[in-house]
Structures are given as C-alpha cells and as structure tokens.
Design brief:
By secondary structure, this protein is of the alpha/beta class. The protein has 16 helices and 24 strands. Helix 1 (about 40-55) packs parallel to helix 8 (about 205-215), helix 5 runs parallel beside helix 6 (about 150-165) and helix 10 crosses helix 11 (about 290-305). It binds NADP nicotinamide-adenine-dinucleotide phosphate (NAP) and magnesium ion (MG).
Length: about 475
C-alpha cells in the first residue's frame, strides 16, 4: 500500500501517478517509495471526509466511536514489533525507542477511545423558565499535518482525540518518514471505520501539505513542525477564519540547582537531549546549572556524554542517525559555528566504527558556558547538541530559562519544595517537570507551547477541547 493514498476507505493511486523515494537514514539507501499526493488528491480526501461526517460517521454514538478506537489500540499492540522495526528503519531511531513509540501509539487510541463517551457538557443557571445547555460538538472535517520525528506516535496523538470527538479527518504525514503511518492506516481499515473517516494523503509539504492547509473544505487544522511552516498554516487558517493548533518545537531548559539530586538528574538530563537524536520538540536542549555546583555537575555530565554511542537503528545504541542529510548539515552548521566562535566543547560522543558511509550521523556534543544570548542557547538545533549555561541564583535561573523565543517545556531539579513550586509557577511554557523530565511523555498530560512554540494543547483531555466546538442551547420552556 506504500505507493497509494488512503481515501474514502480505499487505497488508490495519486493523481500525479508519481512516487517519492524513502531512504533509511542509517545508510542513506532507498528501500521503499510512497505516493506523491497533490492538490487533486487532497480535494478527494476532504470531500470523502465531508461525506463521512455528514453521513454515517456523524450519526455514530460516542460509545461506538470509542469501541472502534480501542480496537485500533489493540491492533497496534499486536503488531508492535513489526511496526517498531519499520519505524526504526524509516527514521533511523534505535529499536528500543521505536518499541517505546509503539506502546505510546497504541495508548493514544486506548486513552481517547475510553474517553470518547466521558467528555460532557454543562447546564448553566439562567433566567426563570429557561434551561441552558452547553454542548461540545465536533469541529467537522479536521486536517492534520505531522512531522517525521515520531510518525506512529504523532498519528495517534493528532488523530485519536479528533476521532473521539466525532470528526472526520485528513492526514498529511511528512514525506521523510511515514511508512508506519501507512501501516497503521491499514489496521484502522481492518477494524472497520466507515469510509472517509480517516484519509491519508502522503506527499511533499509544499504540495499536499499546502493544499490541505489552505483547503476551504476543512474546519480546523492541527500542525506539528517548524515555526516557519506554522506561520504559513496560521495564515492559511486566517484566510478561512478557522482555528488551528500549532506545536512548533522549543528550547526547553533543565534547571539544576545546587541542592539537586545529581544521580537522578544526570541520566535524565542526558536522555532528554539524546532521545531520538535530539529530534524531539520537547528535547531538553539547554541545561542551566547553578554556579556553585557548575564544575562538579558538568564534570559528571561530560563523562556520561563522552560515553554515549551512536550507530545504526538496529545496533540499538544510545543514538541513531539524524533523519536526513539536510538535518545533519543543519545540526553540524550550528556545531561548527559555535566551535569557531570559541564556545567550549566539554564532551563529544563517538560514532561506532564502520558505520555505513551514506548514513546521516552526528555525534552528540556538549557545549559549556554558552552565553544565554548565543544562537545555540536560543534556536532549536533539533539534534543531539546540549548547551550548558551557568546561573547565579533563582531569579537568574528563571530569567535565563524564560529568555528564549520559545516556551514549550522545562525541567526543575531541586530538593527544596517551596522553590519547586515557585520556579514552576514562574516558567513561561506549557509543561513543567520537577525532579524528572518526560520529554513530552504521558498521553494523559496536556502538552503545547506559548510564544514561538505555538498555541493550543494536544494530549490529555485538553486535546478534546481543541477538536470540538462549544454550542450553547437556550430553551425557554416557561
Ligand atoms: P516542516 O517543514 O515544518 O515539516 C513538518 C510538516 O509540515 C511535514 O509534514 C511537512 O511536509 C509539512 N510541510 C512543509 N511545508 C509545508 C507547507 N508549505 N504547507 C503545509 N505543510 C508543509 O519541518 P522540517 O523541514 O521537516 O524540519 C525543519 C525544522 O523544523 C527542524 O529542524 C526542527 O527545528 C523543526 N521541527 C519541529 C518538530 C516538532 O516536533 N515540533 C518536528 C519536525 C521539525 P514534508 O516534510 O513532507 O515536506
Ligand atoms: Mg520536509
């Protein structure tokens, strides 16, 4: 099915008749092709979704929707190993990460499947003789554009809450990695969703993605990706006076105070930046360390960093390759520029020997004493590059932590309970972890940003608010 699009409950060839090569980042070799969907395919998908929404799908009960979704969760779990192998090959991520991703992908369908009939409205006290109800209606037809870093998880994260609310959906995955999206779509088909409820159009962002974002037939769009494309999505939404949810990455800090539990913090701080080779929107890409313990903590951190191992997805080490040559060059551009400017490298990990020459490898790098105004401390690198910044006291830590254009997540490491809450309250971002860091983990936890990280919330029950619209019904019954 890889070379076809899923529209109106059936697999079909794209209007263009063309395909796009899919390469494995571990060796840079083509191993599959996907369909090059364009505007005509998006038209067909949106029309199918509209028919489904106005037809049988619009009449299903929340219970029926939930049952179908739970079945998708079970199917993903049953096919988890096959899907993980495919995800690892398609994205280059280590197998253990791909396996964890499949657990999360299944969980999205379980969580929202179970939630579908539990989100209800309110009755508002009003004038005598009136009853006022507040209902949560579906948006209608929702568009979804997802990136390549966690394709299977993103499929669940964006589609499951939309389906639970009763929307019909059109999804455009990233052309760099979407094979598990296509495979899970087959599973969605097998459990018996009515035609048109889920449509998947693969293709380039500038073609299929732009056509979906500007389509007059959708009622809402959910996007995860770069701030630049997020701006285009928001502009297209404005043209049609419709809402959107944008999740655009971050520059999330880990704040290590002098009384932090170092041994607990160290592996988490390392993982938060090397998980998925740093290609995670909520990657902990800055570590802010109190000056009094800076040298001691950084010494321990550097030791761990230097020990990290990078290899192919099936070597299953700490870190795999980056997704593409473009991303590798972008990440190396940040690293080379910082080195040239004299930002000190405290540790650099090693690539495993004899890696395939065509792979897109970048060794994890730990930079020290990064000035808070430096590009490395402000821009999203989207690679395994950690910038350490010393701070003097709590006020200084808060100022530096909040001092980037982004605001997605933060980690706070301290044993002082009052400080935990004070600093958490002061963080200008969407998610704060204390003495831990989920790197976006937790299907139940509302997630999203402020500032350049975007707006709106995914995950948790909050996502169901985004994918529904409030209707107030006022009845004068005397
Ligand atoms: P991107 O271009 O924003 O891609 C995200 C999604 O948007 C993909 O499905 C992409 O399709 C699609 N897209 C691209 N141009 C579009 C357009 N004009 N209209 C509608 N959709 C469009 O991100 P990228 O180029 O892959 O990565 C660049 C940088 O973005 C990264 O280095 C990172 O900093 C950031 N990023 C953030 C996240 C996150 O999780 N927040 C994820 C990915 C990237 P195609 O890829 O198929 O063209
Ligand atoms: Mg792209």
């Amino acid at each position: 099915m890889n070379e076809q699009l899923y529209i109106d409950g059936a697999w079909r060839k794209p209007v263009s008749g063309q395909t796009i090569p899919v390469v494995c980042p571990s060796d840079g070799k083509e191993f599959a092709r996907i369909a090059r969907g364009t505007a005509g395919d998006v038209d067909a998908a949106v029309a199918a979704a509209r028919r489904a929404y106005e037809g049988p799908w619009g009449k299903t009960t929340a219970l029926e929707r939930g049952r179908l979704m739970m079945k998708v969760g079970v199917k993903i779990a049953e096919h988890a190993e096959e899907l993980a192998q495919l995800e690892a090959r398609d994205t280059g991520k280590p197998l253990k990460q791909a396996r964890a991703d499949m657990v999360a992908a299944a969980r999205y369908f379980e969580f929202y499947g179970a939630a579908s009939d539990k989100v209800h409205g309110e009755v508002i006290p009003f004038l005598a003789g009136y009853t006022v109800m507040v209902k949560h209606d579906p948006r209608g037809v929702t568009g979804h554009i997802i990136p390549w870093n966690y394709p299977a998880q993103m499929f669940g994260r964006t589609l499951a809450p939309a389906l639970a609310c009763g929307n019909a959906t059109v999804l455009k995955p990233a052309e760099e990695a979407c094979l598990t999206v296509l495979r899970i779509t087959e599973l969605v088909h097998e459990v018996g969703f009515p035609p048109g409820v889920v449509n998947v159009v693969t293709g380039y962002g500038e073609e299929a993605g732009a056509a979906l974002a500007s389509h007059p037939g959708i009622d809402f769009i959910a996007f995860t990706g770069s701030p630049g494309v997020g701006t285009l999505i928001q502009k297209a939404s404005a043209e049609h006076h419709r809402a959107c949810v944008l999740e655009l990455g971050g520059k999330s800090p880990q704040i290590v105070f002098e009384d932090a539990p170092f041994e607990t913090a160290l592996p988490v701080v390392v993982n938060a930046i090397v998980q998925n080779a740093g290609q995670t929107c909520s990657a902990g890409s800055r570590v802010l360390v109190q000056r009094s313990v800076y040298d001691r903590f950084m010494g321990m951190l550097a030791e761990r960093f230097a020990r990290l191992r990078v290899g192919t997805h099936d070597m299953d080490l700490d870190c795999g390759p980056l997704i593409s040559a473009v991303q590798r060059d972008r990440v190396q551009g940040f690293v080379q520029a910082a080195r040239k400017e004299g930002v000190p490298v405290l540790a650099e990990a090693q690539l495993a020997p004899n890696l395939p020459a065509g792979g897109y490898y970048a060794a994890p790098v730990l930079f020290g004493n990064v000035p808070p105004t430096h590009t490395l401390a402000r821009e999203e690198v989207f690679g395994p590059v950690l910038s350490a910044i010393p701070f003097e006291d709590e006020a200084d830590a808060v100022r530096i932590a909040n001092g980037t254009p982004f605001g997605l997540a933060a980690g706070i490491w301290t044993r002082d309970g009052t400080r935990q809450l004070r600093v958490a309250n002061a963080m200008r971002c969407g998610q704060v972890f204390v003495n831990g860091y989920g790197a976006g983990g937790g299907i139940e936890l509302p997630f999203g940003g402020i500032k350049r990280s975007g707006h709106g919330r995914e995950k948790g029950l909050e996502a169901m608010r985004e994918f529904s619209v409030v209707k107030t019904i006022v009845i004068n019954h005397g």
